[in-house]
Protein backbone atom coordinates (compact mmCIF):
# COMPACT_ATOMS: atom_id res chain seq x y z
CA UNK A 1 0.00 0.00 0.00
CA UNK A 2 2.74 2.44 0.99
CA UNK A 3 4.85 1.58 -2.05
CA UNK A 4 1.84 1.88 -4.29
CA UNK A 5 0.88 5.31 -3.06
CA UNK A 6 4.43 6.69 -3.15
CA UNK A 7 4.79 5.59 -6.75
CA UNK A 8 1.46 7.13 -7.59
CA UNK A 9 2.31 10.40 -5.88
CA UNK A 10 5.54 10.59 -7.86
CA UNK A 11 3.78 9.83 -11.13
CA UNK A 12 1.08 12.37 -10.45
CA UNK A 13 3.61 15.10 -9.62
CA UNK A 14 5.73 14.23 -12.64
CA UNK A 15 2.78 14.42 -15.02
CA UNK A 16 1.87 17.86 -13.78
CA UNK A 17 5.41 19.25 -13.78
CA UNK A 18 6.31 17.81 -17.19
CA UNK A 19 3.19 19.45 -18.54
CA UNK A 20 3.95 22.84 -17.02
CA UNK A 21 7.73 23.02 -17.38
CA UNK A 22 8.59 20.41 -19.96
CA UNK A 23 10.74 17.32 -19.46
CA UNK A 24 14.07 19.15 -19.55
CA UNK A 25 12.76 21.96 -17.38
CA UNK A 26 11.79 19.58 -14.56
CA UNK A 27 14.31 18.07 -12.16
CA UNK A 28 13.91 14.96 -10.00
CA UNK A 29 14.23 17.33 -7.05
CA UNK A 30 11.19 19.35 -8.28
CA UNK A 31 9.20 16.14 -8.56
CA UNK A 32 10.25 14.90 -5.12
CA UNK A 33 9.31 18.23 -3.58
CA UNK A 34 5.90 18.35 -5.25
CA UNK A 35 5.14 14.70 -4.40
CA UNK A 36 6.46 15.23 -0.89
CA UNK A 37 8.72 12.16 -1.02
CA UNK A 38 12.45 11.70 -0.69
CA UNK A 39 14.29 12.14 -3.97
CA UNK A 40 16.14 8.86 -3.51
CA UNK A 41 12.83 7.00 -3.61
CA UNK A 42 12.22 8.21 -7.17
CA UNK A 43 15.55 6.76 -8.25
CA UNK A 44 14.69 3.57 -6.39
CA UNK A 45 11.41 3.10 -8.27
CA UNK A 46 12.22 4.57 -11.67
CA UNK A 47 16.00 4.51 -11.95
CA UNK A 48 16.22 8.03 -13.42
CA UNK A 49 14.08 10.77 -14.93
CA UNK A 50 14.10 9.13 -18.35
CA UNK A 51 12.85 5.91 -16.76
CA UNK A 52 10.03 7.75 -15.07
CA UNK A 53 9.04 9.35 -18.38
CA UNK A 54 9.07 6.00 -20.14
CA UNK A 55 6.95 4.38 -17.45
CA UNK A 56 4.38 7.20 -17.69
CA UNK A 57 4.24 7.07 -21.47
CA UNK A 58 3.85 3.29 -21.57
CA UNK A 59 1.10 3.42 -18.96
CA UNK A 60 -0.70 6.13 -20.91
CA UNK A 61 -0.54 4.32 -24.23
CA UNK A 62 -1.33 0.84 -22.90
CA UNK A 63 -4.61 2.06 -21.43
CA UNK A 64 -5.38 4.26 -24.39
CA UNK A 65 -4.86 1.52 -26.97
CA UNK A 66 -6.77 -1.03 -24.95
CA UNK A 67 -9.77 1.30 -24.94
CA UNK A 68 -9.73 2.26 -28.60
CA UNK A 69 -8.94 -1.25 -29.85
CA UNK A 70 -11.88 -2.55 -27.85
CA UNK A 71 -14.18 -0.07 -29.58
CA UNK A 72 -12.72 -1.06 -32.94
CA UNK A 73 -13.47 -4.74 -32.28
CA UNK A 74 -16.95 -4.00 -31.02
CA UNK A 75 -18.03 -2.07 -34.13
CA UNK A 76 -16.22 -4.16 -36.75
CA UNK A 77 -18.41 -4.59 -39.81
CA UNK A 78 -21.17 -2.38 -38.42
CA UNK A 79 -22.28 0.98 -39.85
CA UNK A 80 -19.07 2.94 -40.63
CA UNK A 81 -20.42 6.25 -39.31
CA UNK A 82 -21.43 4.65 -36.02
CA UNK A 83 -18.09 2.84 -35.77
CA UNK A 84 -15.98 5.95 -36.23
CA UNK A 85 -18.15 8.15 -34.01
CA UNK A 86 -17.77 5.63 -31.15
CA UNK A 87 -14.05 5.66 -31.76
CA UNK A 88 -13.93 9.47 -31.65
CA UNK A 89 -15.85 9.43 -28.37
CA UNK A 90 -13.42 6.94 -26.85
CA UNK A 91 -10.40 8.97 -28.03
CA UNK A 92 -11.68 12.36 -26.83
CA UNK A 93 -12.87 10.84 -23.55
CA UNK A 94 -9.45 9.35 -22.84
CA UNK A 95 -7.50 12.43 -23.89
CA UNK A 96 -9.74 14.72 -21.89
CA UNK A 97 -9.51 12.51 -18.80
CA UNK A 98 -5.71 12.69 -18.99
CA UNK A 99 -5.65 16.29 -20.13
CA UNK A 100 -2.24 17.42 -18.92
CA UNK A 101 -0.33 14.33 -19.91
CA UNK A 102 -2.01 14.30 -23.32
CA UNK A 103 -0.78 17.85 -23.91
CA UNK A 104 2.68 16.92 -22.70
CA UNK A 105 2.89 13.81 -24.89
CA UNK A 106 1.83 15.71 -27.99
CA UNK A 107 4.67 18.11 -27.32
CA UNK A 108 7.27 15.36 -26.72
CA UNK A 109 6.29 13.52 -29.88
CA UNK A 110 7.40 16.43 -32.03
CA UNK A 111 11.00 15.77 -30.98
CA UNK A 112 13.37 13.44 -32.75
CA UNK A 113 14.94 11.16 -30.15
CA UNK A 114 15.20 7.48 -29.30
CA UNK A 115 12.16 7.33 -27.03
CA UNK A 116 9.96 9.12 -29.56
CA UNK A 117 11.10 6.79 -32.32
CA UNK A 118 10.26 3.80 -30.12
CA UNK A 119 6.83 5.23 -29.35
CA UNK A 120 6.23 5.88 -33.05
CA UNK A 121 6.95 2.33 -34.17
CA UNK A 122 5.01 0.70 -31.36
CA UNK A 123 2.10 2.65 -29.93
CA UNK A 124 1.67 5.36 -32.53
CA UNK A 125 1.64 2.83 -35.33
CA UNK A 126 -1.15 0.93 -33.57
CA UNK A 127 -3.14 4.10 -32.96
CA UNK A 128 -2.73 5.10 -36.59
CA UNK A 129 -3.87 1.67 -37.74
CA UNK A 130 -7.11 1.89 -35.76
CA UNK A 131 -7.88 5.49 -36.73
CA UNK A 132 -6.98 5.15 -40.39
CA UNK A 133 -8.96 1.96 -40.85
CA UNK A 134 -12.11 3.44 -39.38
CA UNK A 135 -11.68 6.59 -41.45
CA UNK A 136 -10.99 4.80 -44.73
CA UNK A 137 -13.97 2.49 -44.13
CA UNK A 138 -16.09 5.61 -43.93
CA UNK A 139 -14.70 7.05 -47.17
CA UNK A 140 -14.62 3.78 -49.10
CA UNK A 141 -17.70 4.15 -51.26
CA UNK A 142 -17.34 7.94 -51.50
CA UNK A 143 -16.01 9.82 -54.53
CA UNK A 144 -12.73 11.13 -53.07
CA UNK A 145 -9.38 10.74 -54.78
CA UNK A 146 -6.21 9.67 -52.94
CA UNK A 147 -4.92 13.18 -52.32
CA UNK A 148 -8.28 14.30 -50.96
CA UNK A 149 -8.41 11.30 -48.65
CA UNK A 150 -4.98 12.15 -47.28
CA UNK A 151 -5.90 15.78 -46.71
CA UNK A 152 -9.15 14.73 -45.04
CA UNK A 153 -7.17 12.46 -42.77
CA UNK A 154 -4.88 15.34 -41.76
CA UNK A 155 -7.99 17.39 -41.12
CA UNK A 156 -9.53 14.60 -39.03
CA UNK A 157 -6.44 14.06 -36.91
CA UNK A 158 -6.26 17.79 -36.37
CA UNK A 159 -9.73 17.70 -34.87
CA UNK A 160 -8.80 14.86 -32.53
CA UNK A 161 -5.69 16.63 -31.29
CA UNK A 162 -6.71 20.26 -31.40
CA UNK A 163 -7.94 20.63 -27.80
CA UNK A 164 -4.63 19.29 -26.50
CA UNK A 165 -2.07 21.40 -28.19
CA UNK A 166 -1.85 25.04 -27.29
CA UNK A 167 -3.84 24.25 -24.14
CA UNK A 168 -3.38 27.82 -22.84
CA UNK A 169 -5.32 29.12 -25.77
CA UNK A 170 -8.33 26.91 -25.15
CA UNK A 171 -8.33 27.31 -21.39
CA UNK A 172 -8.41 31.00 -21.91
CA UNK A 173 -11.19 31.57 -24.38
CA UNK A 174 -13.07 28.37 -24.83
CA UNK A 175 -14.66 28.26 -21.42
CA UNK A 176 -16.08 24.79 -21.33
CA UNK A 177 -18.91 24.60 -18.89
CA UNK A 178 -16.83 22.66 -16.46
CA UNK A 179 -17.92 19.09 -16.93
CA UNK A 180 -15.61 16.61 -18.56
CA UNK A 181 -18.47 14.67 -20.11
CA UNK A 182 -20.14 17.80 -21.43
CA UNK A 183 -17.04 18.72 -23.40
CA UNK A 184 -16.71 15.19 -24.77
CA UNK A 185 -20.37 15.26 -25.87
CA UNK A 186 -20.31 18.66 -27.51
CA UNK A 187 -17.01 18.25 -29.23
CA UNK A 188 -17.85 14.76 -30.49
CA UNK A 189 -21.09 16.11 -31.89
CA UNK A 190 -19.40 18.65 -34.17
CA UNK A 191 -16.92 16.03 -35.36
CA UNK A 192 -19.80 13.61 -35.98
CA UNK A 193 -21.54 16.18 -38.16
CA UNK A 194 -18.39 16.60 -40.23
CA UNK A 195 -17.97 12.83 -40.61
CA UNK A 196 -21.57 12.47 -41.73
CA UNK A 197 -21.12 15.20 -44.32
CA UNK A 198 -18.19 13.23 -45.80
CA UNK A 199 -20.21 10.06 -45.93
CA UNK A 200 -22.97 11.53 -48.07
CA UNK A 201 -20.65 13.61 -50.25
CA UNK B 1 27.36 41.60 -46.10
CA UNK B 2 29.50 39.39 -43.90
CA UNK B 3 27.56 40.26 -40.76
CA UNK B 4 24.27 39.67 -42.53
CA UNK B 5 25.21 36.23 -43.76
CA UNK B 6 26.71 35.10 -40.45
CA UNK B 7 23.53 36.07 -38.63
CA UNK B 8 21.46 34.28 -41.23
CA UNK B 9 23.58 31.15 -41.05
CA UNK B 10 23.18 31.09 -37.27
CA UNK B 11 19.43 31.60 -37.49
CA UNK B 12 19.08 28.91 -40.11
CA UNK B 13 21.08 26.39 -38.06
CA UNK B 14 19.19 27.29 -34.87
CA UNK B 15 15.80 26.81 -36.51
CA UNK B 16 16.76 23.37 -37.73
CA UNK B 17 18.37 22.21 -34.46
CA UNK B 18 15.57 23.58 -32.25
CA UNK B 19 13.13 21.67 -34.43
CA UNK B 20 15.05 18.40 -34.24
CA UNK B 21 16.34 18.46 -30.68
CA UNK B 22 14.21 21.02 -28.89
CA UNK B 23 15.38 24.27 -27.30
CA UNK B 24 16.85 22.66 -24.18
CA UNK B 25 18.41 19.86 -26.17
CA UNK B 26 20.38 22.28 -28.36
CA UNK B 27 23.54 24.06 -27.19
CA UNK B 28 25.11 27.21 -28.61
CA UNK B 29 28.06 24.99 -29.48
CA UNK B 30 25.79 22.73 -31.60
CA UNK B 31 24.48 25.78 -33.44
CA UNK B 32 27.94 27.22 -34.01
CA UNK B 33 29.15 23.90 -35.38
CA UNK B 34 26.22 23.49 -37.74
CA UNK B 35 26.41 27.11 -38.93
CA UNK B 36 30.18 26.83 -39.23
CA UNK B 37 30.80 30.03 -37.28
CA UNK B 38 32.68 30.76 -34.07
CA UNK B 39 30.53 30.30 -30.97
CA UNK B 40 31.51 33.74 -29.64
CA UNK B 41 29.86 35.35 -32.68
CA UNK B 42 26.50 33.96 -31.64
CA UNK B 43 26.85 35.57 -28.24
CA UNK B 44 27.93 38.76 -29.96
CA UNK B 45 24.82 38.94 -32.12
CA UNK B 46 22.21 37.38 -29.87
CA UNK B 47 23.56 37.68 -26.33
CA UNK B 48 22.56 34.11 -25.35
CA UNK B 49 20.46 31.18 -26.51
CA UNK B 50 17.29 32.68 -25.08
CA UNK B 51 17.97 35.89 -27.02
CA UNK B 52 18.41 33.93 -30.22
CA UNK B 53 15.12 32.13 -29.62
CA UNK B 54 13.31 35.41 -28.99
CA UNK B 55 14.74 36.99 -32.13
CA UNK B 56 13.61 34.01 -34.21
CA UNK B 57 10.12 33.98 -32.73
CA UNK B 58 9.61 37.71 -33.19
CA UNK B 59 10.82 37.52 -36.78
CA UNK B 60 8.47 34.61 -37.46
CA UNK B 61 5.41 36.30 -35.97
CA UNK B 62 6.06 39.76 -37.39
CA UNK B 63 6.07 38.41 -40.94
CA UNK B 64 3.21 36.03 -40.27
CA UNK B 65 0.92 38.68 -38.81
CA UNK B 66 1.76 41.19 -41.52
CA UNK B 67 0.64 38.67 -44.13
CA UNK B 68 -2.58 37.57 -42.47
CA UNK B 69 -3.62 41.07 -41.38
CA UNK B 70 -3.14 42.24 -44.95
CA UNK B 71 -5.52 39.54 -46.18
CA UNK B 72 -7.99 40.48 -43.46
CA UNK B 73 -7.97 44.13 -44.58
CA UNK B 74 -8.26 43.21 -48.22
CA UNK B 75 -11.39 41.08 -47.78
CA UNK B 76 -13.12 43.18 -45.12
CA UNK B 77 -16.86 43.33 -45.80
CA UNK B 78 -16.61 40.99 -48.79
CA UNK B 79 -18.16 37.53 -49.05
CA UNK B 80 -17.36 35.75 -45.74
CA UNK B 81 -16.52 32.41 -47.38
CA UNK B 82 -14.09 34.07 -49.77
CA UNK B 83 -12.57 36.11 -46.94
CA UNK B 84 -11.87 33.13 -44.71
CA UNK B 85 -10.66 30.90 -47.54
CA UNK B 86 -8.09 33.55 -48.51
CA UNK B 87 -7.04 33.74 -44.89
CA UNK B 88 -6.65 29.96 -44.68
CA UNK B 89 -4.51 30.01 -47.81
CA UNK B 90 -2.27 32.72 -46.37
CA UNK B 91 -1.90 30.84 -43.08
CA UNK B 92 -1.14 27.44 -44.59
CA UNK B 93 1.20 29.02 -47.13
CA UNK B 94 3.21 30.75 -44.40
CA UNK B 95 3.30 27.77 -42.06
CA UNK B 96 4.30 25.42 -44.85
CA UNK B 97 7.04 27.78 -46.07
CA UNK B 98 8.49 27.84 -42.54
CA UNK B 99 7.73 24.21 -41.86
CA UNK B 100 10.35 23.34 -39.25
CA UNK B 101 10.05 26.50 -37.23
CA UNK B 102 6.27 26.28 -37.28
CA UNK B 103 6.50 22.79 -35.79
CA UNK B 104 8.99 24.01 -33.21
CA UNK B 105 6.89 27.03 -32.19
CA UNK B 106 3.78 24.93 -31.75
CA UNK B 107 5.75 22.75 -29.37
CA UNK B 108 7.22 25.68 -27.41
CA UNK B 109 3.82 27.32 -27.01
CA UNK B 110 2.56 24.40 -24.95
CA UNK B 111 5.00 25.35 -22.18
CA UNK B 112 4.27 27.74 -19.38
CA UNK B 113 7.14 30.23 -19.17
CA UNK B 114 7.76 33.96 -19.46
CA UNK B 115 8.51 34.00 -23.19
CA UNK B 116 5.41 31.97 -24.00
CA UNK B 117 3.25 34.25 -21.90
CA UNK B 118 4.67 37.28 -23.71
CA UNK B 119 4.00 35.65 -27.07
CA UNK B 120 0.45 34.81 -26.00
CA UNK B 121 -0.49 38.35 -25.03
CA UNK B 122 1.11 39.98 -28.06
CA UNK B 123 1.31 37.91 -31.21
CA UNK B 124 -1.06 35.06 -30.39
CA UNK B 125 -3.77 37.46 -29.31
CA UNK B 126 -3.50 39.26 -32.66
CA UNK B 127 -3.59 35.98 -34.58
CA UNK B 128 -6.61 34.85 -32.62
CA UNK B 129 -8.38 38.13 -33.30
CA UNK B 130 -7.95 37.79 -37.06
CA UNK B 131 -8.90 34.10 -37.21
CA UNK B 132 -11.86 34.36 -34.84
CA UNK B 133 -13.33 37.39 -36.55
CA UNK B 134 -13.23 35.78 -39.97
CA UNK B 135 -14.72 32.57 -38.57
CA UNK B 136 -17.50 34.25 -36.60
CA UNK B 137 -18.39 36.38 -39.65
CA UNK B 138 -18.90 33.14 -41.52
CA UNK B 139 -21.14 31.66 -38.83
CA UNK B 140 -23.06 34.84 -38.06
CA UNK B 141 -26.30 34.16 -39.90
CA UNK B 142 -26.10 30.40 -39.33
CA UNK B 143 -28.13 28.48 -36.75
CA UNK B 144 -25.34 27.47 -34.36
CA UNK B 145 -25.50 28.01 -30.62
CA UNK B 146 -22.56 29.37 -28.60
CA UNK B 147 -21.22 25.99 -27.55
CA UNK B 148 -21.34 24.70 -31.10
CA UNK B 149 -19.51 27.78 -32.34
CA UNK B 150 -16.76 27.23 -29.80
CA UNK B 151 -16.41 23.58 -30.72
CA UNK B 152 -16.34 24.47 -34.42
CA UNK B 153 -13.60 26.96 -33.70
CA UNK B 154 -11.51 24.29 -31.93
CA UNK B 155 -12.13 22.07 -34.93
CA UNK B 156 -11.09 24.83 -37.33
CA UNK B 157 -7.90 25.67 -35.48
CA UNK B 158 -7.09 21.98 -35.38
CA UNK B 159 -7.20 21.90 -39.16
CA UNK B 160 -4.89 24.88 -39.45
CA UNK B 161 -2.32 23.39 -37.09
CA UNK B 162 -2.63 19.70 -37.83
CA UNK B 163 0.11 19.41 -40.46
CA UNK B 164 2.61 21.01 -38.09
CA UNK B 165 2.33 18.99 -34.95
CA UNK B 166 3.50 15.41 -34.99
CA UNK B 167 5.46 16.20 -38.16
CA UNK B 168 7.06 12.72 -38.14
CA UNK B 169 3.69 11.18 -38.58
CA UNK B 170 2.83 13.21 -41.66
CA UNK B 171 6.25 12.97 -43.24
CA UNK B 172 6.04 9.27 -42.91
CA UNK B 173 2.68 8.37 -44.34
CA UNK B 174 1.23 11.38 -46.03
CA UNK B 175 3.61 11.53 -48.95
CA UNK B 176 2.82 14.91 -50.43
CA UNK B 177 3.80 15.03 -54.04
CA UNK B 178 6.73 17.23 -53.26
CA UNK B 179 5.58 20.68 -54.16
CA UNK B 180 4.93 23.27 -51.50
CA UNK B 181 2.20 24.94 -53.51
CA UNK B 182 0.51 21.65 -54.31
CA UNK B 183 0.10 20.87 -50.62
CA UNK B 184 -1.24 24.35 -49.89
CA UNK B 185 -3.78 23.99 -52.74
CA UNK B 186 -5.00 20.54 -51.83
CA UNK B 187 -5.19 21.10 -48.13
CA UNK B 188 -6.90 24.46 -48.49
CA UNK B 189 -9.46 22.83 -50.76
CA UNK B 190 -10.62 20.33 -48.13
CA UNK B 191 -10.83 23.07 -45.50
CA UNK B 192 -12.77 25.25 -47.95
CA UNK B 193 -15.30 22.47 -48.48
CA UNK B 194 -15.79 22.19 -44.72
CA UNK B 195 -16.21 25.95 -44.34
CA UNK B 196 -18.78 26.02 -47.14
CA UNK B 197 -20.73 23.22 -45.48
CA UNK B 198 -20.96 25.33 -42.30
CA UNK B 199 -22.15 28.34 -44.21
CA UNK B 200 -25.14 26.58 -45.74
CA UNK B 201 -26.00 24.58 -42.62
From TrEMBL, chains A, B:
GO terms for molecular function: DNA-binding transcription factor activity; transcription cis-regulatory region binding. Residues 27-46 bind DNA. The keyword DNA-binding applies. It comes from the Bacteria. InterPro entries: Homeodomain-like_sf, HTH-type_TetR-like_transc_reg, HTH_TetR. The keyword DNA-binding applies. Pfam families: TetR_N. Residues 4-64 form the HTH tetR-type domain. Keywords: DNA-binding. This is TetR family transcriptional regulator. It comes from Melghiribacillus thermohalophilus. The lineage of its organism: Bacteria, Bacillati, Bacillota, Bacilli, Bacillales.
Amino acid sequence: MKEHSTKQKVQHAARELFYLKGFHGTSLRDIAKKANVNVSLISYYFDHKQGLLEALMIQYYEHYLREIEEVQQQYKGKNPVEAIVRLVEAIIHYKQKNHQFTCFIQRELTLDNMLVREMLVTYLARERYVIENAFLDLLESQPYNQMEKKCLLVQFKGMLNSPYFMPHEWLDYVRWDGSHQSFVNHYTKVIRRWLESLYVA
